[in-house]
Amino acid sequence: MYGAAGPVLVDPDNGERAPRLLDLALAVLLFGNDLPDGPPRLFDAGEWAVFRDAYLRHVGLTAREWDLWPTALTYMLLEWGVWAAIHGDEVGDWDDPRQAAFLADLLAVDVTRYPPARA
User: Fold this and answer.
1) Which of 22, 58, 67, 109 could form a disulfide with 18 if both were Cys (CB 3.0 to 4.6 A apart)?
2) Does residue 119 fall inside a structural domain?
3) Digit-coded pLDDT (tens) for 13-22
């Protein structure tokens, strides 16, 4: 959700049922998907840095979590990214130019686009 103070992540699907690292990975990959006037792509490197640093002002990830970061991104891409692409076909997202561009970027993303804070 976007508020006057900036974006706030609310995740009712996975709240306290998945490791926070997976929630963060899901947010990075799908945060912009539902923004009607958002860019037709995932976060770029600069947007990721802003999002990551804002998140880290409230949550301190451990060294072990950061070691698992690439695995978490890959897992969420396979788990939710593929679902988003398939569901997009069912609901017509692939017929919408903005959504189709977003889904194409999602399916082609190189997870090294989102380095950990200590990289």
Assistant:
1) 22
2) no
3) 655 567 889 9
